[in-house]
Write a structure and sequence with these properties.
36% of the residues lie in helices and 16% in strands. The chain is of the alpha/beta class and 336 residues long. The strands form five sheets. Strands 6-10-9-11 form a four-stranded mixed beta sheet. The chain has a three-stranded mixed beta sheet with strand order 12-8-13. Strands 1-2 form a two-stranded parallel sheet.
Length: 336
Amino acid sequence: MRVFEKVDQKVSFPELEVQLMERWKAEGAFQKSLDLREGRPRFVFYEGPPTANGKPATHHILARAFKDLFGRYKTMQGFYVERKAGWDTHGLPVEIEVEKKLKISGKFQIENEIGVERFNELCRQSVYEYVEDWVAFSQRMGFWLDYDNAYWTLTSEYIQSVWWALSEMWKQNLVYKGFRVAPYCSRCATPLSSHELSLGYRDNVPDPSVYMKNDPKTSILAWTTTPWTLPGNVALAVDNDIVYIKVKEGDEYLILAEALLTVLKEPPQVVERMMGRDLVGLEYEPLYPYSVPEEGKAHYVVDADFVSTEEGTGVVHTSALYGVDDLRLCQEKGIP
């Protein structure tokens, strides 16, 4: 009598995975894992929803594997871990995908050739199409989620929940009016999130940098990789503990970090050494007269924690209009 089933020497692991998935589905394994732990302490899991603007790719496996790992681990520890799928159906990625299909570009063509209502409907159709691929992809890799009751960011229920959350924060005085620096897309005519900005990121793009003088006699030599922001210059940033030197070059004097003398064409004549803190408070001539604020003080040297001697001059051009660190620094120093 044969006790064990015959083991096939030609094993297909993908087929074994499919068989296991079918068994999980037939037995309702995921739901049973919840039913057995109902009433136990909760471990709350929020599925940060992927943007449903295209098909999933291999790099999505890693993030979703991590998400599945922690849910299973906490379940094995006895916690009640509900896991609801979610789909991010808003944002530029979805709109751009539809624009490509329609072979159009920008708001003008959307409004005048397609119509906003029709365009929105096409966006909804697009995300539904890709969500089916995402569900198949996620289930195939064994990611346990409640896909039947997933939340969609385009539904009225979800949008209402966001307004409710904002309302509750407002009631608790957690909402305030402020300023932030955000990249802006002139084609899309809208600010961009960091994620949306990275979608168009390209390596090995020429990165121009310029050196900035601010006085015909003695200049604090500043450096920037964003010369188009110079019209918004309001301050120069130094580090308190960096050694700076005043050098003579021709008929003028320059002040820069001693560690970065190599930016000058020839070895200069050193006139004076000082610490960064000795420069703080010094005023300089603004590059553009129209950048002088009507109220408040600007165009002077401030200390900052992001200044280094790795490159440049040890003096950083600062513009609150264009940089996140710049804005924070100017707000701290009270620069308008």
